[in-house]
Amino acid sequence: MPQVADIEQNMKRCICGTCPSFPGDKGFYCAKGKSGEAVERKGCDCGECPNFKEFGLSKGYYCADGSAEQIEA
Fold first, then answer.
1. First to last CA, the chain
2. pLDDT digit string, tens, across residues 39-55
3. What is the pTM of this model?
4. What SS3 state is found at 70?
5. Of 67, 72, 54, nearest to 26 (Cα)?
6. If residue 63 lies in a helix (H) or strand (E), which one and from where to where?
7. Rounded Cα distance, 61 and 24, in Å
């Protein structure tokens, strides 16, 4: 099951803040889990993120659905 380590190096590569569906809170959802805010699905940029590519992730909307480890198990 894919897991993105919650470390500074990976967090610096995070592009959540530029996503059209970004709910405006913490970001780095693939590692930290879903947002505490409501997510309006307006498109997903997860596939463009360096973490997505490096860790072989296959889904998106981690902000709405939970971390990579949770939804790709």
1. 5
2. 999 999 999 999 999 99
3. 0.91
4. helix
5. 67
6. helix 62-65
7. 14
